[in-house]
Design goal:
The structure is a single chain. The protein has 422 residues and is α/β, with parallel strands linked by helices. The protein folds into two domains: 164 residues, Leucine Dehydrogenase, chain A, domain 1 (Rossmann fold); 151 residues, 3-Layer(aba) Sandwich (Rossmann fold). It has 14 helices and twelve strands. The strands form two sheets. It has a seven-stranded mixed beta sheet. A hairpin with a 2-residue loop joins strand 7 and strand 8. The longest helix is centred in the last third of the chain and has 26 residues. It starts with 10 loop residues before the first helix and ends with a helix.
């Protein structure tokens, strides 16, 4: 799609397309099937009038992109962020397709986004916006159509409001329409930890392959939200030293290690890390360049770029975020050859795997223990890791391309087998 403009055209969508093309080249995919597999299936753009606490009505814009519906209902998060664009949502939906396919989930990829700085909203305003968004996309979603989940700027409470809105519309309780819900409303044990837990699992597994021990491991986490904080906690319990963390206000660096419990309490109280006394204050950009064993970008996309890829001082990059590494940075890192990458579609797949478990539990009305959830999760992660490592050897390509080759080939095969309708 690089050869013609589309409604999704943007740097981040182009990044996803370039990654796709590298994998499709290896697969020798023919042009027709390639275009059909790459292009998002459909998108919905909604206008949402919301009454603010001041009494004034503000109009917000939101999106839902369903990239692929060939292998099951679409699945993907809903992002509330001031920089959301349609192209970004389309790229994230595309990555979700390959991620679900890679780890063997019966889903296509989707993503949603609303252009809003949720930090500037009161709880009641956030509730009205959340409900309005769900109301507007209701015709396009459902437990067998498209199942949203939390992402940047949304959480279990937002999912609860959305599930309630959908259920009120249907006239009955329908927990399977959305995942990442509170436990009392059909959420799954372990879902909050799932993405960070998965990131930590992969970090441990790849460090073991590299012969690095827990005590010798230092970790820097960019983004102290759901994914970053859970990954940091899991690695800290494993025995690693967390030497850097950050959020939208900037970073905290302490080579002697950061007290995660204190940081979490500080963030809960002050709404950000700004002023946290547990280390030296740095910008997000500076933090990425500090020496460490493992660097975990767990915030937004396109933070490891041509500008800083040559300056990184880590041995392993674990992509907790989606799309944190630009195509140019990927090339620089591959030329350097001294930094391993666990690509996003593999590294952060724990979240969608446990979302899948939540959906299964909702459909069966039968709920699992946390141990059952994590046991099943770790088995699926191990299987995905083994298949990616094997594919990487087979094609002698980057780990990212290997992961995408697996994800893409399953989707394109399904499309080919189903054929064209009508």
């Amino acid at each position: 799609m690089s050869h013609h403009q589309t409604i999704y055209s943007s740097p981040v969508f182009q990044q996803a397309c370039n990654q796709f093309d590298a994998a499709a080249d290896i697969l020798g995919m023919e042009a027709g099937l390639r275009e059909r597999t790459k292009r998002p299936r459909r998108c919905v753009v909604v206008a949402m009038p919301v009454r603010m606490d001041s009494g004034k009505v503000e109009l917000f814009e939101g999106y839902r992109v369903q990239h692929n519906l060939s292998t099951g209902p679409a699945k993907g998060g809903i992002r509330f962020h001031q920089d959301v664009t349609l192209g970004e949502v389309a790229a994230l939906a595309m990555w979700m397709s390959w991620k679900c396919s890679l780890v063997g989930l019966p889903y296509g990829g989707a993503k949603g986004g609303v252009i809003v700085n949720a930090r500037d909203m009161s709880a009641t305003e956030l509730e009205r916006l959340s409900r309005r968004y769900m109301q507007e996309i209701t015709p396009f979603i459902g437990p067998n159509v498209d199942i949203p989940a939390p992402d940047v700027g949304t959480n279990a409470q937002v999912m609860a409001w959305m599930m309630d809105t959908y259920s009120n519309h249907k006239g009955y309780y329908e927990p399977g329409v959305i995942t990442g819900k509170p436990i009392s409303l059909g959420g799954s044990l372990g879902r909050t930890e799932a993405t960070g837990e998965g990131v930590a699992w992969f970090v441990k597994a790849y460090l073991e392959d590299m012969g690095v021990e827990a005590e010798k491991t230092t970790v820097i986490v960019q983004g102290f939200g759901n994914v970053g904080s859970e990954a940091a906690r899991a690695l800290y319990h494993w025995g690693a030293e967390i030497t850097g963390i950050s959020d939208f206000t900037g970073g905290i660096y302490n080579p002697k290690g950061i007290d995660l419990k204190a940081a979490a309490e500080y963030t809960a109280k002050n709404k950000s890390l700004k002023g946290f006394p547990g280390g030296e204050a740095l910008t997000n950009e500076q933090l990425l360049e500090q020496p460490c064993t493992v660097l975990i970008p767990a915030a937004l996309e396109r933070v490891i770029t041509a500008e800083n890829a040559g300056k990184l001082k880590c041995r392993l990059i674990a992509e907790g975020a989606n799309g944190p590494t630009t195509n140019e940075a990927d090339q620089i890192l591959s030329q350097r050859g001294d930094i391993q990458i666990i690509p996003d579609v593999l590294c952060n797949s724990g979240g969608v795997i446990v979302s899948y478990f939540e959906w299964l539990q909702n459909l069966q009305n039968y709920y699992w223990t946390k141990n059952e959830v994590f046991d099943k999760l770790h088995r699926m992660l191990a299987k995905a890791k083994a298949s990616v490592d094997e594919t990487q050897k087979k094609y002698n390509c980057s780990r990212r391309t290997a992961a995408l080759v697996l994800g893409i080939s399953r989707v394109s095969e399904a499309k080919a087998m189903r054929g064209l309708f009508p």
